[in-house]
Specification:
By secondary structure, the protein is of the alpha/beta class. The chain has helices at 22-26, 37-44, 50-60, 81-101, 123-135, 153-157, 173-190, 217-231, 261-277, 289-296, 324-331, 345-354, 427-430, 451-454, and strands at residues 2-9, 64-72, 106-111, 141-145, 161-164, 195-200, 235-239, 253-258, 287-288, 305-309, 337-343, 359-364, 373-383, 386-388, 398-400, 404-409, 412-417, 441-444, 460-465. It folds into two domains: 2-282; 287-471, no CATH class.
Length: 497
């Protein structure tokens, strides 16, 4: 059995201040660099990306791998036409070459599912159209997806099965890739397609309500498992949607795959009914930055209080450089507090030029919103920004943030880096000499992913709303293209026109 493996991953924020260009795929902070076929297997096997799980599962099954290209960029604005066309051309060209070399039994693609390109709002649907055009209508194709995918009808139609991660924070990325590969092998051996049932959900789900570590989502997933077992489906795919994209296919969606249509329909309908019953349970408490800091300062000090700077989350399209929460920590004279990170290459260069122990005047951050913070900071430590992630979500992934520094402004410290990365791994702090468990307050630019590595050491987790484009309430965004009838927040009466 010979299977092609490749990938193209991006989560696109339609309203983010900065587009995602070709260069962003070349140096993705916290994830592997792009891979062409010759290097794919060796470069990805030891990482935490879904394709790594598929590679290992293929090897264990005795499958011969026909490698394609793979590329990832951190979330930001829509992908430029240049970047989309170049990477898509890589993949379809590699696929054509693989077919010339010999017959293929199937194709697995590692996709995110929430990519918006300049000319293609449903970018994964377009990529799958191109792949299907080359591979033919009968070629078995499976995909893995991030659960933040806007899983569209076109995506479901153009592949045989989709396997989203089942955790947020995403600690099962490799497992999802392995599951997609096993579904592909099963599809090849059965010789006929799965029956499919696709359903969309009619309300947005804010990302702060999606964490699978706590209710209500932990309870929803437990019931998802029971429904899948009860109806004997091969996969009950559930995607939250990404509530910062703006095209008609956006939103929560379900896809059930089974041996017969009745089972697929029954599982999809039962799970849809569950989500509709739980709709109002998905409201989440979020504090303004001043209250969040005040509450954090009430901590016992024996374990850190973690504040999530959710609206500048680099994992949701934020640039990682707004300073509202940092300014509030300074204003309230917080002690033993550290923030990770401020994405500001200019300030990082200034710190390196000054050297450890020096005091520098910085216009810190604010490149994305025009609101830098004027500070006099002491340079505590410098680094080249390179380290290996160690936490549950990204263990083994290489990080390269460029020249970086740990600075102190009074009792508050902050990591300043030359490239953005969501703060989901304690190694980000440790590589600059900060032991997270010893801090009183840890501020992280993240919405949920930080919980995998930081919640176990935290006395309390507080979600804060400071300036940034990843707004806690998506209903405040100026949507123009959503489908009619989509409720913009759980339990709300307001719908798109």
């Amino acid at each position: 059995m010979r299977i092609a493996i490749g990938g193209f991953l991006h989560e696109s924020h339609s309203f983010a201040p900065r587009a995602t260009a070709w260069a962003d795929f070349l140096q993705p902070g916290g994830f592997p660099a792009p891979q062409r076929p010759a290097g794919l297997v060796m470069a990805l096997r030891g990482t935490s990306v879904p394709a790594a799980g598929a590679i290992v599962a293929a090897e264990h099954a005795g499958v011969k791998i026909a490698p394609l290209s793979w590329a990832f960029a951190n979330p930001a604005g829509p992908v430029t036409a240049e970047a989309f066309e170049r990477i898509s051309a890589w993949i379809v060209g590699d696929l054509s070459d693989a077919l010339e070399e010999g017959p293929l039994d199937g194709i697995y693609l590692d996709l995110h599912g929430a990519m918006v390109a300049d000319a293609f709002p449903d970018a994964e649907g377009e990529l799958l159209r191109r792949v299907r055009a080359i591979a033919g209508p009968d070629m078995p194709i499976t995909i893995s997806l991030d659960p933040h995918a806007n899983m569209t009808a076109e995506m479901v139609e153009r592949c045989d099965a989709a396997a989203p991660f089942r955790t947020y924070p995403h600690v099962d990325m490799k497992q999802a890739g392995a599951r997609a590969l096993k579904l592909l092998v099963e599809r090849i051996r059965r010789g006929s397609p799965y029956a499919k049932a696709y359903r969309q959900v009619d309300f947005w789900l804010p990302i702060t309500s999606q964490c699978t570590m706590v209710p209500p989502m932990s309870e929803v997933y437990a019931e998802r498992d029971r429904i899948a077992t009860r109806h004997g489906v091969s996969e009950l795919a559930f995607c939250f949607g990404f509530p910062y994209a703006d095209f008609p296919g956006c939103g929560m969606a379900i896809a059930a795959y089974a041996a017969d249509q009745a089972a697929a329909d029954a599982a999809a309908d039962e799970f849809l009914a569950l989500l509709n019953r739980r709709e109002r349970d998905f409201d989440a408490e979020i504090l303004p930055a001043d209250r969040a800091v005040a509450e954090a300062m009430k901590g016992s000090g024996t374990r850190p209080v973690v504040i999530a700077d959710t609206q500048d989350n680099p994992g949701g399209g934020g640039h990682g450089d707004t300073t509202g929460l940092l300014a509030e920590l300074i204003r309230q004279n917080a002690r033993k507090a550290v923030l990770g990170l401020i994405n500001d290459a200019d300030s990082a260069r200034a710190c390196h030029a000054a050297g450890e122990g020096a005091t520098v005047s910085l216009k810190l951050g604010g490149k994305s919103d025009g609101a830098p913070l004027d500070v006099n900071a002491r340079v505590l430590r410098l680094s080249n920004g390179r380290f290996t992630c160690t936490g549950p979500m990204a263990a083994g992934n290489p990080a390269d943030l460029g020249p970086s520094a740990l600075i102190a402004i009074g009792g508050v410290r902050a990591i300043v880096a030359s490239r953005k990365m969501q703060a989901y791994d304690q190694a980000l702090f440790r590589h600059l000499g900060v032991e997270p468990a010893a801090e009183a307050i840890i501020a992280v630019k993240s919405s949920v992913h930080f919980r995998a590595d930081f919640q176990p050491i935290a006395e309390r987790v507080i979600v804060a709303a400071a300036p940034g484009p990843v707004v806690a309430d998506p209903a405040t965004l100026p949507f123009q293209n959503l489908r009619s009838g989509l409720r913009l927040r759980p339990g709300a009466n307001d719908r798109t026109p």
